[in-house]
Amino acid sequence: MNSSRTAEEFGDLADKTNAEIVQLYYDWRQWALPKQLPPEGDWITWLLMGGRGSGKTRAGAEWVRTLAAKGIGPIALVGETMTEAVSIMVRGDSGILNTHPDEERPVLRGNSLRWPNGVEAMIMSASDPDRFRGPQFAAAWCDEIAKWPHGEEAWDQLQFGLRLGDRPQQLATTTPRPTRLVKRLLADPHAVVTRMRTEDNRAQLAPAFLEAVVARYRGTVLGRQELEGELIDDLPDALWQRGMFRPFTGGQLERIVVAVDPPVTGNARSDACGIVVAGRLGEGVAVLEDCTLKPAAPLAWARRAVAAFHAHDADAIVVEVNQGGDLVRSVIGQIDGNVPVREVRASRGKWLRAEPVAALYGRGLVSHAEGLSALEDEMCAFGPGGKSDGHSPDRVDALVWAVTELLLGEGRPRVRGL
To answer: 259 - beta bridge partners?
Structure first.
């Protein structure tokens, strides 16, 4: 249970029947922390931001349980991926299936839940925003929205489907990160914000976690974000800060390139294939599009890169070939043998390669077209360890190759209009 309250506060359990104990166990309002209960008022969005282990998932699961008991549905259950949605939101220790007594528990079939009273929920992945086109919902629970790879696009598509019933509502639970979507919801007058700390839920956390993790990170910037649930706008040790991004407002582009950072393998568990399009703009660079692909089988990323090459009338595809130049050339050649390919090799670490590019941003020489929020989020999370929020910075790698080629390389510009 997610409360610091003890069983003694509810009387002597020895005097209660098994049925009474079970009823008490599943009486969420008796056990819940005040911040885990839905806020009062006529809200549309409830943004629940909290530290790790603060009880966000349990709050979301119990909110869905309450909706289903009232006959409110269908409900959208949206996670970063299908795997995380099922394993955390539905099957997890604090997930939906474990919050229900047997007689009320929904049945999981494929990607849907169905309650005994007929209410249904659809499990969805935020990684594929197009899947939101068509379905309609009366409510939605969206988990870890700060991790969604296409956050704003997925959220916007969900809004179009949230149109059933008298009062559609949505709950967004997340550990805070300064993504565009999180900032947008914080500024939304129709959203109610609740903040929770890991410490608030210490009664339900393992002592080893409190001693080893909480004690270690308490007071640090990472700890303020991951434990205290604070929104830290910029990581102090990141190469890029959000104030460095300038909007691209048009102009004469010279040389345009498509930069590709291919993954080592092309299976579902491999890194994404970073694909970024940029063009020379006077003394600077305009980043035009992020076409990054995951999963990224070789022919799939090659098609995406070649399509971007033609769509932007580019001059060349710049590809990192540390993992096999012959294979890279062969794959692109299978799609279009006439596309010019410029091979580059990484001789330094990711951080060292990125530093001169970040310096160009600091001088105001790089601008961004609209729709690059996923790239910008990865850039602002890119730290000295060469990772971005613990993951391979595939978009950043491609960006670095593109800007390096256009401003720090030896390519000759060719003037063109836009």
So the answer is: 276, 318
Residue 121 has phi, psi (to 5 degrees) of -130, 140
Give the total residue count for the chain: 418
Is 235 contained in some domain?
A: no
Q: Above 90 in pLDDT, residue 15?
A: no
Enclosing domain of residue 202: 7-226
Exposed, middle or buried by CB within 10 Å (0-12, 13-18, 19+), for 66?
A: middle
Assess if residue 46 is contained within a domain.
Answer: yes
Cβ neighbours around 232 below 10 Å, total: 15
Q: Can you give the CATH number for the domain in which 62 is found?
A: 3.40.50.300
Largest CA distance in the chain: 86
pLDDT above 50 (res 6): no
- pLDDT tens, position by position, 210-262: 666 666 665 555 566 666 666 666 676 788 988 889 999 989 998 999 999 98
Residue 387: inside a domain, yes or no?
Answer: yes
Q: Is the separation of the CB atoms in 192 and 41 below 8 Å? A: yes
